[in-house]
Design a protein that fits this description.
InterPro entries: Semap_dom, Semap_dom_sf, WD40/YVTN_repeat-like_dom_sf
Helix content: 10-25%
Order of helices and strands: HEEEE
Protein name: Sema domain-containing protein
Strand order of the largest sheet: 1-2-3-4
Radius of gyration: 22 Å
Organism: Scleropages formosus
Number of strands: 4
Keywords: Glycoprotein, Signal
Oligomer: single chain
Length: 82
């Protein structure tokens, strides 16, 4: 009896996991189709955290070695580095 209940549970779990919603990006585009401005700093890697502060017009970018405060209007303009 216990194996029957376990089998039904595993079957339902498999059914839900294989027919669940697929991950679809909100927006996608080709790199050459848009005007992008890139930011990078020599010797800094693993940019992973972004925080947008619209009141101050800044974008905070966190990396493994530093935190940058960038202009929201032009990310190539570095306002501050910690």
């Amino acid at each position: 009896m216990a194996f029957g209940v376990l089998g039904v549970f595993l079957g339902l779990l498999l059914e839900v996991s294989t027919h669940g919603p697929t991950s679809v990006p909100r927006t996608s585009w080709k790199h050459q189709d848009v005007n992008l401005t890139e930011f990078s700093e020599p010797g800094i890697f693993n940019y992973s955290t972004l925080l947008l502060n619209e009141d101050k017009d800044v974008l905070y970018v966190g990396a493994r070695e530093a935190i940058f405060e960038l202009s929201m209007k032009n990310v190539s303009v570095k306002k501050n580095k910690v």
